[in-house]
Design a protein that fits this description.
By secondary structure, the chain is an all-alpha fold. The protein has 4 helices and no strands.
């Protein structure tokens, strides 16, 4: 089972942007799609997060906060 942190890291690597009009369904779909593109292995997505953190440290923290908040909202509403 993936944690909120795991899901946020997957979302972080998706093409979604904080400025997009995002519904909980769109967020969950983006996570599912991204996991599929990583062969269902969240560790592959984590490697992309690490790369992005190194390549774009100035935007890493704000995007990760967005991803955590988006996941929390999307999955709280799914329950």
């Amino acid at each position: 089972m993936l944690t909120t942190s795991d899901l946020a890291q997957v979302l972080f690597t998706s093409p979604l942007q904080p400025s997009d009009d995002l519904s909980p369904d769109k967020i969950r779909t983006a996570i599912d799609d991204r996991l599929c593109s990583c062969d269902g292995d969240a560790a592959v997505c984590v490697a992309y997060v690490a790369q992005e953190a190194g390549d774009h440290p100035e935007s890493f923290a704000s995007r990760m906060r967005w991803a955590l908040n988006a996941v929390t909202t999307a999955y709280r509403q799914a329950v």
